Amino acid sequence: MGMLIKNEFYKLKREWFMVFLLLLSLLPILTGGAGAVFNNSAKSLADLFFFMNNQFSMFFPMVIFILIGSLFYQEYKNKTYINWITYDFSKKKLFLSKVAVSIVIGIGFAVILFIAFGLLVAVLNGTDRLIGGGISLFLNLAIGFGIEACVVVLITTCLGAIVINLSRNIIVTSVVGVIYGFASCLFIGSESGFVIPGSFAYRVSMFFSDKSTYYDSPVLATIGGCISSVLCFIVMFLVGLIVFSHKKKIEN
Q: pTM for the whole thing?
């Protein structure tokens, strides 16, 4: 399994689309920073995080869709799919290697994004704002954002794997990713939105910034959101594995 994962990273060595995905991951910093500068009204740590996190919840699922889609699509595009599935490994391990690499890279992109967010705060407000009382809030935001990023990366990776292995088309997968990114933001403000993992993860993240933004029934929402997120991950992972394992058509 370790060799498969290492091989997947090696395949990405000359893939320039990774640079594009990294830049797309950083788009919330550009839009959030621009909004703060032009409006001149959102330069506090909490306000900047609100700007950035709203954009993150919209754009980052697109990044993950394109990422996992590209990992599978390169086998179809380069006509290496047949050779790949005839390795002396089960299809489960082949599927897991792609998913694992996507998750590692996705979380890595999220870490880079949050570091860039810290630099943005320092540039707009000066390092003294972080070194002072803002450091504890910054660490709290890191915890909340980390939880949100993990939920988004895990579930979106599995959903993207389903789409790419059904369509075998990176354009279709990218379009679905764009639609999913926008649609995932529609339920953020709903009190029943905790059943949608992305919306629930967003509210959890914002809780670490402003507790008043959380659900009116926090216990019910937290339990329901956790159960929904875990079930969605398990179901989508299994469906993705089944779709990949039983895909019979071979591209010419």
A: 0.87
